[in-house]
Amino acid sequence: MTAKVFIDGEAGTTGLQISERLARRADVDLLRLPDDRRKDPAARAEMLNAADVAILCLPDAAAKESVALIENPETRVIDASTAHRTADGWTYGFPELDPGHEGAVANARLVANTGCYAVASVALLHPLVGAGLLPRDFAATINAVSGYSGGGRQLIQAFEDPSAEGHIAAAVRVYALGLAHKHVPEIHRYSGLSHAPIFVPTVARYRQGMIVQIPVPLWSLPGTPKAKDLQAALADHYAGRRFVAVEGYDAALATGHLEPEDLNGTNDLKLYVFANEGTGQAVLTALLDNLGKGASGQAVQCLNLMLGLDEATGLDAPADLLN
What we know:
This protein is about 30% helix and about 20% strand. By secondary structure, the protein is α/β, with parallel strands linked by helices. The chain has two domains: about 5-115 and about 295-305, Rossmann fold, CATH 3.40.50.720; about 115-290, Dihydrodipicolinate Reductase, domain 2 (2-Layer Sandwich), CATH 3.30.360.10. The two termini are about 35 Å apart.
């Protein structure tokens, strides 16, 4: 039996990659609207209520509107926007958050897909705060670089089209300098920290791929844990998981550099603990495709769980990268 899935916002960057993944599958029947009816509320409502699962790839306000249009109590929702990530009644769409959380996703009617920066930050912080290696009042600073596809169609055009209004010619742009990036509430809630982190994002002149880094002065932590302790806690938390891997401690020390595009086209998230044992310093690092585990791949993984399928269905082969 095939599941009926409607992607509201299929023409956007995330929606296109989800559609590409699902179009290859015989176990999913994609419900589609013609281009001239995609913004018609009545047509959208019809599709939303006909779907077994609706995936929302929309701006926040439009995502809230779509949820309000759903009257069918059997329609389940995955929202890829920021609108519901900290809302009551919504299950956080990071199956690896805790042991057994994949079951919560599988049984949920409303799932809030993670943000790209946020899933990397939460993946690093949540297990370490939970294990007591990082205190809840740890003063976290998060530095991150992403490809410009994470900003959606408008930012893609600004980087790629020299004639576009607001064209960006720079190789690197630091932004969200008001320290109020939309992913901060999500990171704060699911990291376990008592204070919101300082988050400093950067967008660079490449299409997709992401590195997120969190400096840790080990000497300042209660009990003065070693970098090996942090790596071991992360490895234990994610042991046996298909899409989250933790690099070995010695292998991380031997790593000379990372490229943000190394996991593009995958749903993988790779975590590292880099350290200088002499100075008592470490840097927690996450590598991922911002459109994979940070968006479309994560949504498909959640969809698989909600449909009672193996979570890796349709995710083992790399997705074709958008041109």
